[in-house]
């Protein structure tokens, strides 16, 4: 993730520098171009655009080098906005001065207007987009999007200070879920202490933890135990600080807000693959909604004529890391179906915490047709477009089914839920929730883009064959 952020910053800076150089060049020289190749008296000869290509490359390279020297690509979110803006100004100033010296010594004719205005404009654009990104991150964090859940091992003074530092810096996008105790405090008095170190795995699973911060500076064996258990659960591990007993030997020290931590273990995230997956979701769902809009209108009319009630059923579902969202579906049942669910619970044909009846008496005539060809799920493309769902992933369960989950079932919520998945194409009529869970975990552990494509391709004949219920 750090490498991805660094590449993003470098590419954005390079793009903005190029745009600024082009804009300043056009403003300076385009009004002077004439059909007559001989310049008018008092007007400087206008150089061809290619003449400034070397200037652009050199200036851009110098600016990026000085930005790197000012650590603008490695710690951009761990400093204040004013400090970052000052660093941008320094980097651009140094690059401009070096370029000006090169121009003077080499006797190359470069417009001072282009150099000066480019420098001032680069300060504004490079600092401006960083400030915009900071505000965008704060908005996302405030809205609860993209947060990383953190567990702190150690509920003493150091652990509390770590929590304060992490939560004070909104740009980090971190939520401290609580503490794991190692000193047998009275956990009934302090609800932030979620349990003991021996329960680390269960706590991490129950609270969808992404990373563990270890704040026990003197208990070497405990640090080792926590590191081993966290790795087993595929969690990131950071220690505050020292390299105890060799476990942090050669581990990189980095800044997280105001904290100096040792990155003992980093769980890699396939960030480029997830980015492509999200782009596929956006493009495919948007195109499908446009192309299917006539069909959606016809189905909405059929539902309205068939039975009283709304066209869409807004079901509450549980998504990634336990976040709840409204899942859009065409209504296939009578309008009071939820009220009748408990009275039909004894007819449930599924094993485990989810509910399904093949010949559900609550289904309408149009609803049976929609279920057969999975047309009731087409409106979920809106959830995909909003990022609440994906085209492929574990199915999102209703909140009442989620409340019956055992602790190990929560692992299926590590990823964004989907419209289709392994279970739908391989064991759709298997009543076992354990089989469903096994397939979901197989998908999570072996995920790649090609797997998504294969599932989508196999979903099409499954839908056309009317395999739904």
Describe the structure.
By secondary structure, the protein is of the alpha/beta class. It folds into three domains: 2-142, no CATH class; 148-267, Rossmann fold (3-Layer(aba) Sandwich), CATH 3.40.50.720; 272-464, no CATH class. The protein has helices at residues 2-29, 53-69, 81-106, 112-142, 157-168, 200-206, 220-232, 271-291, 293-306, 337-341, 365-372, 380-386, 399-402, 422-426, 433-445, 449-464, and strands at 148-153, 174-181, 193-196, 211-214, 236-239, 253-256, 259-265, 312-318, 324-330, 390-392, 397-398, 418-420. It is flat and about 85 Å long. The two termini are 41 Å apart.
Beta strands, count: 12
Whole-angstrom Rg: 29 Å
Query: Percent range for helical residues?
Result: 40-55%
Instruction: Give the uncertain stretches in residue-range form.
Output: 33-37, 39-46, 242-250
The structure class reads alpha/beta
- Let me know the average pLDDT: 79
> Which strand order do you get reading across the main beta sheet?
3-2-1-4-5-7-6
Range of strand content: 5-15%
């Amino acid at each position: 993730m750090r490498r991805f952020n660094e590449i993003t910053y470098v590419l954005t800076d390079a793009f903005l520098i190029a745009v600024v150089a082009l804009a300043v060049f056009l403003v300076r020289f385009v009004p002077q171009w004439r059909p007559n190749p001989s310049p008018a008296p008092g007007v400087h000869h206008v150089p061809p655009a290619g003449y400034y290509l070397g200037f652009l490359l050199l200036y851009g390279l110098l600016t990026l080098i000085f930005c790197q020297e000012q650590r603008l690509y490695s710690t951009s979110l761990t400093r204040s906005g004013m400090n970052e803006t000052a660093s941008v100004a320094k980097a651009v100033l140094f690059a401009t001065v070096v370029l000006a010296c090169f121009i003077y010594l080499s006797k190359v004719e470069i417009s001072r207007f282009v150099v000066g205005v480019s420098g001032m404009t680069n300060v504004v654009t490079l600092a401006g987009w960083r400030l915009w990104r900071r505000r965008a991150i704060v908005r996302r964090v405030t809205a609860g999007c993209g947060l990383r859940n953190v567990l702190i091992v150690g509920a003493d003074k150091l652990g509390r200070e770590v929590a304060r530092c992490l939560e004070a810096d909104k740009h980090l996008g971190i939520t401290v879920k609580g503490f794991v105790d190692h000193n047998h405090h009275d956990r009934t008095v302090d609800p932030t202490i979620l349990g003991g170190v021996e329960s680390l795995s269960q706590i991490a699973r129950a609270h969808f933890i992404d990373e563990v911060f270890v704040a026990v500076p003197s208990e070497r064996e405990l640090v080792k135990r926590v590191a081993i258990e966290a790795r087993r659960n595929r969690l990131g591990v950071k220690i505050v600080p020292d390299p105890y007993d060799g476990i942090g030997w050669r581990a990189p020290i980095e800044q997280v807000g105001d904290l100096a931590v040792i990155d003992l273990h980093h769980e890699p995230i396939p960030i480029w693959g997830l980015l492509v997956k999200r782009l596929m979701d956006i493009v495919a769902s948007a195109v499908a909604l446009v192309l299917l809009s006539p069909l959606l209108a016809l189905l909405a009319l059929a539902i309205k004529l068939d039975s009283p009630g709304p066209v869409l059923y807004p079901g509450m579902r549980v998504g990634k890391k336990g976040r709840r969202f409204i899942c859009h579906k065409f209504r296939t049942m009578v309008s009071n179906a939820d009220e009748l669910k408990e009275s039909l619970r004894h007819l449930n044909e599924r094993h485990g915490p989810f509910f399904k009846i093949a010949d559900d008496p609550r289904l309408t005539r149009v609803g049976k047709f929609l279920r057969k060809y999975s047309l009731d799920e087409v409106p979920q493309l809106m959830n995909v477009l909003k990022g609440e769902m994906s085209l492929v992933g574990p199915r999102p369960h209703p909140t009442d089914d989620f409340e019956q989950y055992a602790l190990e079932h929560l692992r299926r919520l590590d990823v964004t839920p989907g419209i289709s998945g392994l279970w739908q194409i391989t064991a759709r009529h298997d009543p076992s929730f354990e089989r469903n869970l096994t397939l979901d975990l197989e998908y999570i552990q072996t995920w790649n883009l090609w797997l998504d494509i294969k599932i989508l391709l196999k979903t099409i004949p499954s839908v056309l064959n009317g395999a739904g219920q």
